[in-house]
Amino acid sequence: MKYWLAGICLCFVLILAGCGSSGDQSASVSDIPDEPDKETVTSEFENSAGESIETLIDNNFYLLDVVSGDRSTSANVYATRLYSVDELEELFKQTEGPDEISDKKNGQQIMIYDDVFITLKPSEEDDDVTLIEVADRNFVRENYSPNYLNTFFTFALLNSLFGSNWSQTRMDTCQNGGCYGGYTSTYRSDDGSGGTGSTVRRGTSSYRGGGPDAGK
User: Which sequence spans correspond to the domains of the chain?
Assistant: First the structure.
């Protein structure tokens, strides 16, 4: 009888523990592993031999988070302690010149390449960390707030990229909330049910940067 009761109690404890650990864990820049030295990463970019800018970012920086958007779109958010926003801007420009580059606003800057938007910004969690968001054109078109993007680029430019009436159409959509205004560690959006639902899921990659100890 005692063993039977003990077994029931153990099952109950395990069920409670499972419930308590459910849900996505928030991404944190404290998870950034040891990175290769700065000279190694810079050399990877300088000797890239035609690699795209998004591939170089993916190969050399830690994938912190993945933002899941509408219509099965997503954006990758990387993090590094090696470079400031200004240093990354210069490194990326020297590697592959962007089609458009914004002025820096509130510490943030956006670079537009052929099919990707790259946003550089300091982490709100740690001033020594720089975040790099890589979003393809479909993600930007389907999720971003036009007013947020207008902080960096004119509506005329945005409409030339996404369609002649994109900015007004998105403004109408965004009146109901839920439009994306750039990555933060706790981004939440209207889920259409009157409450808020998280649209961020944790990035699952390990560090994939250059250097002999990458991924270990």
Answer: 25-136, 144-181
